[in-house]
Amino acid sequence: MSDDFHTIIEPFRIHSVEPLRMTTKEQRESAIQAAGYNLFNLHAQDVLIDLLTDSGTGAMSRDQWAAIQHGDESYAGSPSWFRFEAAVKELFPFRHVIPTHQGRAAEKILFSVLGGPGKVVANNTHFDTTRANVEATGAEARDLLIAEGHDPAVLHPFKGNMDLESLEELLSERRADVPVVFLTITNNSGGGQPVSLANMRAVSEICHRYGVPFFLDACRFAENAWFIHEREAGQSAREIPDIVREMASLADGMTMSAKKDPFGNIGGWLALNDDALAEQCRNLLILTEGFPTYGGLAGRDLEALAQGLSEAVHPDYLRYRIRSTAYVGEALDRAGVPVVKPIGGHAVYLDARALLSHLPALAYPGQSLAVALYQAGGVRSVEIGTVMFGRQPDGREVPAAMELVRLAIPRRTYTQSHMDYVIEVVTDVASRASSLPGYAMVYEPPALRHFTARFEPVA
Ligand code: F0G
């Protein structure tokens, strides 16, 4: 951005392009029917604008592709590993860095050691894989989000904050049962909303007073740091890496999906300070992922991530990233489409409960909206509501706290005209939302049902 002008432009130009495949409405209607009305079952070739996830779907930079050529595939002690470890520690100076093939592998390893029946893991809001990995050990995954975070329409600069009173209450009653407290930054399942540095400091203080480890689920740490820079008193003069290092200094460890802010197509890590815990985790890593100097990754992936990490904290990129997401959300808001406000970092979340108020939660209003967006314009989104979170460990099906449809924006991938098209499609579908059908789930797998469930529209 030149100093004299206000338009925030993509801080890159296009170097290599991928064709998009156009489809007709008839083709999309038969594709989604064949997919059991589950957008995860579509062939990606049948999708025009893919906003299913921002995970692993971003564009790598010239310098990341160049770094891939430096990938050294030595089984042990590769120079690519040492570059990766140094890049992680530059931002997150934890004593131990344990590379995994993606975020959930880090979760699986950590909760295998810390979880178990009778334990309670607290989080502002557990992401679906995090919750599933906690519950798979028999432990309880408890969400302790502030009340504002549950209301899509309430404005609050840090709607991802943890409710400190509830945390204090949990720890004072059941300290011995709580092996770890997490903060998810930004809070993906709660609208991509950030957590303030003040809240992280307070959570850290409470945890340490009770002797409970505090971890970050840090997939979108750079976006969270940018929100702190923009919104939190006294933070605007600080460099982004400096804010990130303070976040890390408050925690005892982190899990990471490097498929988000670090611009990886694959990758993740677990990092922590506790030597004994790190040893247990490394032993599990060797069982399921690989040797500790590559984990689940190739040397070339480690190189791409090391380079990506340095790009993720660049202010020109983050200003564009947050602004371009807000551009979509604000346009929809102006058009009268109910969205989670303020607009999150990596995604715009449509409020399907408000928009499809004729449908009860168990008719899956979010799923209905997501299917309609695909049928109308080839836009793929994801339901974050009762389909994703409705099934309880005890077998009951209950409405989720919110019925959202997420338009996740891959990093550096789509242009403003792609987003203008998305705005047009969403606005069109929203104008006839009250005529969209409910859905029944006709196949449900035992866990993480949203990925493979099948549906049918109900008349
Ligand atoms: N934690 C959060 C907050 C996430 O958003 C994700 C993934 C994970 C953990 C797991 O990481 O996919 O590398 O195993 N979120 C993706 C999404 C899948 O679409 O939001 P992973």
List the topology elements.
Layout: H1 25-34, E1 49-50, H2 62-68, H3 79-91, E2 96-100, H4 103-114, E3 120-123, H5 128-135, E4 140-143, H6 164-174, E5 181-184, H7 197-210, E6 214-217, H8 221-231, H9 240-250, E7 253-257, E8 268-272, H10 275-288, H11 299-312, H12 315-334, E9 347-351, H13 352-355, H14 365-377, E10 379-380, E11 382-384, H15 386-389, E12 404-408, H16 416-431, E13 438-443, E14 454-458
Parallel strand pairs: 1-10, 3-4, 5-6, 6-7
Antiparallel strand pairs: 2-8, 7-8, 9-12, 11-12, 13-14
Helix pairs in contact: 1-14, 2-11, 3-11, 4-5, 6-7, 7-9, 8-9, 8-12, 12-16, 14-16
This protein binds ligand F0G.
Please describe what this structure looks like.
It is a single chain. By secondary structure, the protein is α/β, with parallel strands linked by helices. α7 (197-210) runs parallel beside α9 (240-250), α8 (221-231) crosses α12 and α14 packs across α16 (416-431). It is built from 16 helices and 14 strands. It is globular. The chain has helices spanning 25-34, 62-68, 79-91, 103-114, 128-135, 164-174, 197-210, 221-231, 240-250, 275-288, 299-312, 315-334, 352-355, 365-377, 386-389, 416-431, and strands at 49-50, 96-100, 120-123, 140-143, 181-184, 214-217, 253-257, 268-272, 347-351, 379-380, 382-384, 404-408, 438-443, 454-458. It folds into 2 domains: 25-54 and 314-458, Aspartate Aminotransferase, domain 1; 62-312, Type I PLP-dependent aspartate aminotransferase-like (Major domain) (Aspartate Aminotransferase, domain 2, 3-Layer(aba) Sandwich), CATH 3.40.640.10. The strands form 5 sheets. Strands 2-8-7-6-5 form a 5-stranded mixed β-sheet, sandwiched between helices. It binds ligand F0G.
